[in-house]
Amino acid sequence: MWPRNDVHMDDGSMTPEDQEPVTDNDMEYNDNGEESSYSNGSSSSYNADKLSSSRPLQHKLDLSASPSRNNDLNPRVEHLIALFKDLSSAEQMDAFTRLLQESNMTNIRQLRAIIEPHFQRDFLSCLPVELGMKILHNLTGYDLLKVAQVSKNWKLISEIDKIWKSLGVEEFKHHPDPTDRVTGAWQGTAIAAGVTIPDHIQPCDLNVHRFLKLQKFGDIFERAADKSRYLRADKIEKNWNANPIMGSAVLRGHEDHVITCMQIHDDVLVTGSDDNTLKVWCIDKGEVMYTLVGHTGGVWTSQISQCGRYIVSGSTDRTVKVWSTVDGSLLHTLQGHTSTVRCMAMAGSILVTGSRDTTLRVWDVESGRHLATLHGHHAAVRCVQFDGTTVVSGGYDFTVKIWNAHTGRCIRTLTGHNNRVYSLLFESERSIVCSGSLDTSIRVWDFTRPEGQECVALLQGHTSLTSGMQLRGNILVSCNADSHVRVWDIHEGTCVHMLSGHRSAITSLQWFGRNMVATSSDDGTVKLWDIERGALIRDLVTLDSGGNGGCIWRLCSTSTMLACAVGSRNNTEETKVILLDFDAVYP
Amino acid sequence: MSAPIVDAPAAEIVYKIISSDGVVSKMSEKAVQQSKTLSNLIENLGYTIENIETRDPIPVTNVNGKTMAKVAEWCEKHKADAIPEDNMNVLKTLTIPEWDQKFLKIEDEALFDLILASNFLDIKGLMYFGCKTVSNMAKGKTTAELREIFGINTDEQDAAEETAQRAAAEVA
C-alpha cells in the first residue's frame, strides 16, 4: 500500500507529467493487447471488441477526471487490475507467478504479510468459550501464562478458574495462606557475626519487602483466584531455587545444650534438647510460646500428633511425656521403659516408642494407657516407623523387625545387615521398608515376599552411617556421615547421582518441591540440591565456625519455611534455630 | 429398526445429508452414530430403512458441504470406535492417532469449521482431536510465536490501526 501511495504523490505533484503517463498507458495497453491476441488467438474478435470499447472509456476518464481522483487512482495500476479481472483463473495464476519474479524482496515480504492472515484463525477468540476451554485444558500452567499475554481475549479465556483447577497436582500445589513472618524474631534477620546466608536480601530492602508481604491478596487473585494460586506456587518454588531470601529469623533457646530433635506441625515448631526441656515456638510470630519442663533427663526424641493437639517426648529419664499444644500443660507421663526412650512414631493417637531397653511399647496418648509391649530385639531399638497397624523397628542387633501393633506379635525379622541399623523408612501401601546401617549399606525390603527373600535391593556406595532417607515412588534420597548425598533408583538398585560438596557428616535431609533436597551437616552448612539434575542449587546457611565445631544438627521444613537447628559440641557456636522464609503472596 | 430378513443379511442404511449450501453427503448408519445430533435428528424426523429411499436428504443447515464431507469421512473412519467419555480429563491423556493427525493437517479455516461442526453435531471424538490439535499448536510456544502462529496482532497494533482508520475517516 505504501509504495502505491508514494507513486500517487509523485503523480499528483507534477502537472507536466500528467500527459506523459497517459501516453505511457496507451503504449502499455497496446502491448497487453498484443499479448492477449497471442494467448487467445481463437477469440481475437472478442479482444478486438474489448479493445475498442475500453479505449473510449479510458479516454473519457482521462478527460473528465478531477485532480483529487487523479491523486487517488494510478491509471496504470487500474488498467492492470481491469486486465487481470478479464483473465481466467489459470491465466491469473500465471500472471501472479511472473509478477512475483519481477518483484523485489521488500514487496514480496509485504505480500506475505497480507496473504498469511487468510490462512490463519484466531481459534480462541472465535470459537465458543467451552471449546476454547477444551483447547486450553491441554496446556501446562507455563503455557497458560504465555497465552494470557497474546491478546485481551486470550487473557480472559486463559484466566477461567476451571482451566487452572484442572492442572495436575504437580502444577497446582496447594500451600497454606500467606504468612506474616514480620514480628518477633523476624524483625531481625539470621545474618550475624559468624553466620552467612549467601543470598539474603540487603537489610535496607527489608522494610519495603515486609510491607509488600502484608498485601497478601493481589489483583490477579481477585479476578482469577486459581491462576493466582498457580503463580504463587511458582514464585515459592523460585524463592527456594534462585530468588534472594526475603526473610529470616533466629530463635534463641536451649543455651549451651544440644537440640536433639525438632518437629513442625503447621505453625508450631517443637525443639527438644539435652537440657531436659522442649520448647514450643510459634513460627509466624517468631517467638517461644511454652517451655515444657518436667523431664529429669535429656530429651532424645519427640513427635507431634497428626491432629496437632499433642506433643510427645522421650527421654533418658526412661519416661514418655504427653503435652498439650494448646497450653503446654503436661497431660500424661507414660512409664514402663527401663532405659532411655530413643525413638518414636505416631499414627492417630497411637504412639509406638523404642528404647535402649530393647523393647517397643504401644500407647494411647489420649488416655495415657499402655496397650502392648513388643519383645524381640536383642539390643537397643534405634529407629521405628508405624502406620497405625504395622510397626517397623530397627536396632543395634542389626535386624529390622515387622510387628503387629495390636497383638504385639513379631511378624517378620529381616536379616542381612551386619552392623547397627540407624535409619528406617516404611511405605505402607507398597509394604516397602528401607533401612540404613552402620555397615554402610541401605537395604530395600518387601516383607510380603517369602521369608528369607524379602531383600529386593542392596544399595551400596556410601562409606559410613546413613542418617536420613526419603522415598518418593522409586527414587530414594539418602544422606550419610560420609558427607555425600546419594540418589537411588530402588527398582533398579542403582545409584543415579552422588552429590558432593559437604565437608563432613551430613546430619539431616528434607525433600520438598519436586526435586529439591536440603541437607545439613557437621561442616556448618545447609545446602540445597537439585536431585533430578544431580547438582548443587546453592548454599542456604554457612557458619564461620564450620570446621571448628559449629554444626547444623537438624532440619525441618514446611513448603515455605526451613528451620535449621544450629550449635556446636565445644561452645564455638551458640545454640539456636535459624528460620528461612520462602513464602510469597497471592499476586 | 425392523428385524433383518432371515435369509439375507441386513443392508446397512446409507443416509443422505444436505448441507447449508445444498451439497449432499452420504454417511452410513454406523458412522452417523458418532454424532449424537444426527442420531437424534434421524430418530425425531422418523427416517427408517423403509422410507429412507423416498425421503429428502436430512437437513443440516449449520454446516457447509465441504466441512460436512470432511465430517463424513472422519465418521466413516471411526464408525467402529466407542464414543469417548464426556470428561475433561480425557483430553489430557488423549493422543491423536496417526491417521487423524494427517486428517487434521489442514488450513486453520478448515480446522476451525471442522471443530465448530463437531461441536454442533456433537461428535465428541472429532471435537477432542480437533481441540487437541489446536492445543498442540500452542504448546511450548512463546507469546510472540503464538501471535505469529494464530495471526493475532498485539493490542497495541490493533489500537494503532483503529487510530489510523479513525484519522482516515476524518480526512475523507
Automatic annotation (TrEMBL), chain B:
SKP1 component dimerisation domain mapped to chain residues: 124-168
Biological process, per Gene Ontology: protein ubiquitination; SCF-dependent proteasomal ubiquitin-dependent protein catabolic process
GO terms for MF: cullin family protein binding
Residues in SKP1 component POZ domain copies: 16-79
Family matches, as InterPro entries: SKP1, SKP1-like, SKP1-like_dim_sf, SKP1/BTB/POZ_sf, Skp1_comp_dimer, Skp1_comp_POZ
Pfam families: Skp1, Skp1_POZ
Keywords: Ubl conjugation pathway
Family: Belongs to the SKP1 family.
Entries under PANTHER family matching the protein: SKP1 (PTHR11165)
Functional note: Probable essential component of SCF (SKP1-CUL1-F-box protein) E3 ubiquitin-protein ligase complexes, which mediate the ubiquitination and subsequent proteasomal degradation of target proteins. Regulates cell proliferation during embryonic and larval development.
CDD domains noted in UniProt: BTB_POZ_SKP1
Protein name stated in the entry: Skp1-related protein
Pathway: Protein modification; protein ubiquitination
Origin species: Caenorhabditis elegans
CC annotations in GO: cytoplasm; nucleus
